[in-house]
Amino acid sequence: MVTFPNELSRRQSLIAAGSLALLAFAAYFNALANGLVWDDPIVLGRQLRVFGSLASVFFPPHDIPQFSPDYYRPITTLSYLIDQALGGNGPLPFHLSVVLYHVVATVLVFRFGTIVFAGTAAAPLAALIGAALFAVHPIHSESVALGAGRSDVIACALALAGAGVYCGDRQRRLSRAALAAGLILLGALAKETALAVLLLAPAGELFLTTTAATKVAPASRAERRRQTTTAVPVSPSALRFAPFAVAVVVYGVLRHAALESMVGGVEPLTLDALVNVIGAVGFYLFKVILPVHQSAYVSDLPIHPLQLLLCTAVLAALGVAFRTAWRRRPPIAYPLLWTMFTLAPSLAIVLKIPSAPVAERYLYIPSVGACLLCGFGCATALLATPVGARRNALVAGTGLLVVVGMIATIRRNAVWRSNISLWEDTAEKNTTDGLPLRSLAAARLESGAPDAAAQLFNEALQRRNNAIGQQTIYNNLGSLAMQRKQYDEAERDYRKAIEFNRTADGLYNLGLIPLTRAMSADASKSDEWKQDQARQARDLILQAANLNPHDADTQVAIGQAAQVAGNDDEARSHFQQALEMGLPESTAEAVRKRLAGLH
């Protein structure tokens, strides 16, 4: 026979929180064995070297390699730097920190659930089940098992902490409001979607104040007399909401000072764009309820007329459910509002990046509300069922739901083990876009299988590719030709790459061709010819350095070209600059030898 307490003692709450922490850690324990995949090496190897001070974290330069011009996430960047300081560039500390952030977020979901459902009989059980489902939800794998997916996890934990501080204090003191707004602001500085919680937290007064009134009054007249009648001063409404307004202004000022813009480029809202937004909502609603056929790269939305009609009907039903819940049971309305409100910012991606309009990691914060709603439904059903076999069966079914979620999460985590496993899985599920195949080809090339990589790159050309995709494919085909010492073919592919997208990497690679010719030329080539090739290389690689001044390898190549061209002073300057920027030890040793030869 299974029974449930209506309220948890402090000791029981600590036991529940500890159990949830262990559950969340167990669900992602196998992610600690994952390597550095997708954006992880870019962050660690190319971007972090730019951030040499705290000021550069909050006001980053505008020429960071492969860094989105619309991102302003200094808290996330700070977390990368902390990982690097503690564990170097290895994958374990990079993944361990994200798993621990998820553990913290799970415990905060439990605490938040007890606040949202406070005053109802299902409160502790609903919060426990909701947090357990959050801990093992497979849709979170992209955010937790990928080191670079941490922004959603950090933003969610900080936003939950702030919302819990504000909604958990019935007196709404100004100091509590300031602390809550500060925590949520930090969450927004980890990822922009947490800005929605700056509105959600104070909106809790509309949905959760009724809960406070449902607390049972003292039973006897004597107890009522003993109860204090001293009024607790409450800040005027406008004043206690002021910290949240200040937080929005501070965020806007920081973002504009760092990026010189607030929103960046957005596609116009046409009828097709609106259809895509509805399709994106349908994708997210389906995935948060039934996370099957998960994919790291989704390029096509469910926009068949029947799918759009079904999505519209579901949205209408959710609107009716929200209105009914607000009128009859406000605590249910709040997590429903949380899900819709925190999902809204991610829909802007449909207009900003039409080639990749949705991603599973965008559901991390919205799933808090969805999991708590599911937890409340399960808890209500359990409490409404008489003690006996049927209740025991419901308990077993709820437990089975958590177990199935954990198994699915563990399996999904393994997909993120390496670039090969990730892109094999993605290319199998996305058969229309070229990105998965060209990413798999790059992984094969990195693993030492150039022939397989070349075949995959050519297959990727037959799929849909934007200009950046075409540039990536031809750039890699050029590198394969360089390995085979087919310099004319490499030059042709590199020039095609630059035609599609003029990047620092493309110019650098194109410059390596005349540099390689000059440095490997035999005695039949005159010094004048070698110097001419070196000057061509220098000009191209200098253009690459202007686009990406933070790449030490580029400085080494310019130094080599200057040395071959006979400009020793210029060569010395670029070699020294490369050493100051930081090089792998083997490369640094070779550069020091060249410097010694110049002296």
SSE string, helices as H and strands as E: HHHHHHHHHHHHHHHHHHHHHHHHHHHH
* Global geometry: elongated
Distance between the termini: 85 Å
Overall pLDDT score: 87
What is the total number of structural domains?
2
| Strand coverage percent | under 5%
Instruction: Calculate Rg over CA atoms.
Output: 28 Å
Keywords:
mainly alpha, Serine Threonine Protein Phosphatase 5, Tetratricopeptide repeat, 599 residues
Description:
With 599 residues, the chain is mostly helical. It contains 28 helices and no strands. It has helices at residues 10-27, 40-47, 54-58, 74-87, 91-116, 123-136, 141-144, 150-167, 174-188, 197-213, 221-226, 237-259, 271-289, 305-328, 330-343, 348-352, 366-384, 389-415, 419-429, 435-446, 450-461, 467-483, 487-500, 504-520, 527-547, 552-564, 568-581, 585-598. Helix 8 packs antiparallel against helix 9, helix 20 runs antiparallel to helix 21 and helix 26 (552-564) packs antiparallel against helix 27. The longest helix has 27 residues, at 389-415. It starts with 9 loop residues before the first helix and ends with a helix. The model is unreliable at 210-236 (pLDDT under 50).
SSE topology:
Blueprint: H1 10-27, H2 40-47, H3 54-58, H4 74-87, H5 91-116, H6 123-136, H7 141-144, H8 150-167, H9 174-188, H10 197-213, H11 221-226, H12 237-259, H13 271-289, H14 305-328, H15 330-343, H16 348-352, H17 366-384, H18 389-415, H19 419-429, H20 435-446, H21 450-461, H22 467-483, H23 487-500, H24 504-520, H25 527-547, H26 552-564, H27 568-581, H28 585-598
Helix pairs in contact: 1-5, 1-6, 4-5, 5-6, 5-8, 6-17, 6-18, 8-9, 8-10, 9-12, 10-15, 13-14, 14-15, 15-17, 17-18, 19-20, 20-21, 20-22, 21-22, 22-23, 22-24, 23-24, 24-25, 24-26, 25-26, 26-27, 27-28
